[in-house]
UniProtKB/TrEMBL annotation, chain A:
ABC transmembrane type-1 domain mapped to chain residues: 46-248
Species this protein is from: Demequina capsici
Domain of life: Bacteria
NCBIfam families reported in the protein's UniProt record: Mo_ABC_porter (TIGR01581), modB_ABC (TIGR02141)
PANTHER family associated with the record: SULFATE TRANSPORT SYSTEM PERMEASE PROTEIN, SULFATE TRANSPORT SYSTEM PERMEASE PROTEIN CYST
SUPFAM superfamilies cross-referenced by the UniProt entry: MetI-like (SSF161098)
Pfam families membership: BPD_transp_1
Alphabetized GO MF terms: ABC-type sulfate transporter activity; molybdate ion transmembrane transporter activity
Name recorded for this polypeptide: Molybdenum transport system permease
Positions of transmembrane segments: 49-72, 84-105, 117-145, 174-195, 229-249
Assembly: The complex is composed of two ATP-binding proteins (CysA), two transmembrane proteins (CysT and CysW) and a solute-binding protein (CysP).
InterPro entries noted in UniProt: MetI-like, MetI-like_sf, ModB_ABC, NifC_ABC_porter, Sulph_transpt2
From TrEMBL, chain B:
Protein name according to UniProt: Molybdate ABC transporter substrate-binding protein
A Pfam family per the record: SBP_bac_11
Residues noted as binding molybdate in the record, renumbered to the chain: 53, 81, 182, 200
Entry keyword annotation includes Iron-sulfur: no
Bilayer-crossing regions: none
Keyword field: Metal-binding, Molybdenum, Signal
């Protein structure tokens, strides 16, 4: 039972989220909604967002799982500090993330000269968008993996080891299957975060239609000349966010 | 805070009350700008919304204004012109609005009935990183294949102006990025990511790490800056709001603008 005195505060909390979303929907010119979201600029930005966010989510899966496992197993001094650093992009202001990426991989950045020597230029390319999205989305995967591992006793892994399985076999045959639901949640959340990425992309990748201008950047730009298009595209992103997170939670509740 | 410990619910409730109180305090301060409230000792406030490119000059003019009007506080808020227009039209409590382009101001003036005046002009120029590593000599160099050019998107005023100049000179620009504002263009030039960018003369004057290269045909797009006082609760601007507008238009105000690179109206 929900204690009665929590009800008003819970209601205020719910309204704080709900009212702005309703207000956003109330400003949509539904008659022109479809033409607005299927305009060349809107479609280009949405397709770019879906493409880059999918790659970013895949990269989070590829890099975040090993990183999450490593942080979970880490027993060295300063392990909790390392964990905090890895999770920092979760709470960093987006523009700070963009500046950090710029100072690392930009032309005059820490690695920029080396990359340029190899003929690799990142800024103003779709690759820069994917990097920015992966940077901000990775912590979601790491957190999902870590918390799933923390809820396991490790008994099955120990048994498998006594039966002669090598660490890689134990990981592949025992740990990974058990992590399945957590990986699904982590991937979906990483995808959703990547779709919503704005500040780091703006600072690091630039904004050119079809190349680096993702849906959030298109919304920011459309506000200047065509607020109706910005609202319409914004509603599309809200729907994407709700559907994606909804799917995750249904899975979590079922699992 | 050394008060007794209270339950969490009460604490958050008092937090909300505090927020509500500070909100109403703002309203009270705005009401204080009415000339009728002569007896009140509360400081009077003029809230000025101005385009981001006016940050330095309006801060200086506001300081002078406060010095000339004891007991008056100028509250400045800077953002992109369209953001400011949006705020005003959504009912943000403001006394003066100064934008960086006529179209945005016209939109506001039409809806709430004000009479804007032009107080400054601005023209475009080419910004390159210090030392000009790509060797940019003028507009023609911006079309070179090896030059990474960044401009404002055509949807925003500086981008529309850039387009106008390029059209007037018969040049087709192919930028690697179209930014939403001048600050982002300058940032990418100053950091060396871009070889060149097109910005306003005044933006360049207050940026580090960049140099100016003259832009041929810049006269094709002279940008006008309008200012207006906004009607308050009784449907009329306060006398302080009008006074601030006059301060910007005055010789002293114009001198501050000229020092920052703005042209005369």
């Amino acid at each position: 039972m929900l204690p009665r005195r929590l009800v008003p505060l819970a209601a205020i909390g719910a309204l704080l989220v709900l009212i702005p979303l309703i207000a956003l929907a109330s400003r949509v010119d539904w008659a022109s909604f479809w033409p607005l979201v299927t305009s060349e600029a809107s479609l280009a930005s949405l397709l770019l967002s879906l493409r880059t966010a999918t790659i970013a989510a895949a990269l989070c899966l590829l890099l975040g799982v090993p990183l999450g496992v490593a942080l979970h197993r880490a027993r060295f001094r300063g392990a909790s500090f390392a964990r905090a650093v890895v999770l920092a992009p979760l709470v960093l202001p987006p523009v700070v993330g963009g500046l950090a990426l710029l100072y690392a991989f930009g032309r005059r950045g820490l690695l920029g000269g080396t990359l340029e020597a190899f003929g690799v230029e990142i800024a103003f390319t779709t690759a820069a968008v994917v990097m920015a999205q992966t940077f901000v989305a990775l912590p979601f995967m790491v957190l999902a993996v870590e918390s799933a591992l923390s809820s396991r006793t490790g008994r099955h892994e120990a048994i498998a080891a006594t039966l002669g399985a090598r660490p890689w076999t134990v990981f592949r045959r025992v740990t990974l299957p058990a992590l399945g639901p957590a990986l699904a949640t982590g991937t979906v959340l990483a995808f959703a975060r990547a779709v919503g990425e704005f500040g780091a992309t703006l600072t690091f990748a630039g904004s050119l239609q079809g190349v680096t201008r993702t849906a959030p950047l298109e919304i920011y730009l459309a506000r200047e000349a065509d607020p109706g298009a910005a609202v319409a595209l914004g509603v599309v992103l809200v729907v994407v966010a709700i559907v994606v997170v909804g799917a995750t939670f249904r899975r979590a509740a079922a699992g | 805070m050394t008060g007794p410990r209270r339950p969490r619910a009460a604490a958050s409730a008092s937090l909300m009350l505090l927020a509500a109180l500070s909100l109403s305090a703002c309203t009270a301060a705005d009401a204080g700008t009415e000339p009728t409230s002569g007896a009140a000792v509360a400081p009077q406030t003029v809230t000025v919304l101005a385009a981001a490119s006016l940050t330095d000059v309006f801060t200086e003019i506001a300081d002078d204004f406060e010095a000339a009007h004891p007991g008056v506080k100028v509250s400045l808020s800077f953002a992109g012109s369209s953001t400011l227009a949006e705020q005003v039209l959504e009912g943000a409590p403001a006394d003066v609005l100064a934008t960086a382009n006529g179209a945005t101001m016209a939109q506001v003036a039409d809806q709430i009935g004000t009479d804007p005046q032009i107080f400054a002009t601005n023209t475009l120029t080419i910004a390159v990183p210090s030392g000009d590593p790509a060797g940019i000599g003028g507009l023609a160099d911006l079309t070179r294949d090896d030059v990474r050019l960044v401009v404002c998107a055509p949807q925003v005023p500086c981008g529309a102006a850039t387009q106008k100049v390029a059209d007037a000179e018969g040049v087709t620009l192919s930028p690697v990025s179209e930014e939403s504002n001048v600050t982002d263009v300058l940032g990418k030039v100053a950091s060396g990511e871009a070889d060149a960018g097109i910005v306003y003369v005044t933006d360049l004057a207050r940026a580090d790490g960049v140099e100016q290269v003259a832009l041929d045909g810049a006269d094709a797009a002279v940008n006008l800056y309008p200012i207006t006082s906004l009607p308050g609760g009784d449907g009329r601007p306060t006398s302080l709001a009008d006074a601030f507008v006059q301060a910007v238009l005055s010789d002293a105000g114009q001198a501050v603008l000229a020092r920052a690179g703005f042209g005369a109206p």
